[in-house]
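Tutorial handout. Part one gives the primary structure; part two gives the three-dimensional structure as tokens.
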Amino acid sequence: MDALSPPVDADRRNWIAGLEKGLAIIQAFDIENSRLRASTAAKLTGMTRSSARRHLMMLTYLGFVGTDGKSFWLTPKVLRLGSAYLHSARLPRIVQPFLQRLTGATQESAFVSILDGDELVYIARNGANRVMNTGFVIGARIAPFLASAGMAILSTQPSEVVASLLANYQIKPFTPCTVTDKRLILAEIERAAVEGYALWEQQLEPGVRGIAVPLKNHKAQTLGAISLSARIGDERPESAVRRLLPALQQAAADLRDVVQESV
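Part two.
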């Protein structure tokens, strides 16, 4: 299916192609493509060059994109799109007091994240002073296989979902410890499913350990994961589990009757 075609279950009467194309243009910008020419934007989105340029110019008129006449880049106004979710969604607001208590009990950085398509997205955090440089900012997106939170979420998903995500996963080692063997990744997901938590170390940053449990509602539906990020230091993995897992499990249990069906 073409990236700019309506989903098969969409009502075409409600389909606004121009809106979809404009959003596709915004999403084409990333670390490797912080500035785009119309031709590059067209290639990334599957549009014609003239269509991509028209949408870039429209976004420029609206203030979401800046230009020097040749290249285009996003402006800070784009942040309003992400902040609209954080200000309107229930889950980030609900979990914040629980993350604060979790940080107080463990003195580590606490996070809540969700799976959005094939990416893990961090939607809430609370950081301990001594490890504020550890972890992710709100809105950060990564492959779920690179974080304990992603592994915890995937441990609750059907095997065919995990297999599909893993098959499409483009392995990129970020540290000497990044696991690049998909069989080992799958084995760790299966272990997390049995033990109820994921422990994943030094996948994105050397010396950092993550531990996570699934975040479920009262219907046992997985909404995301709640995790802790800590410096490894001299602490052994089994010691970290004994120190951190009970507090994580308690936070997840306390949230179970509070969070709703959606994020």
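Part three, for discussion. The chain has nine helices and eight strands. The mean pLDDT is 88.
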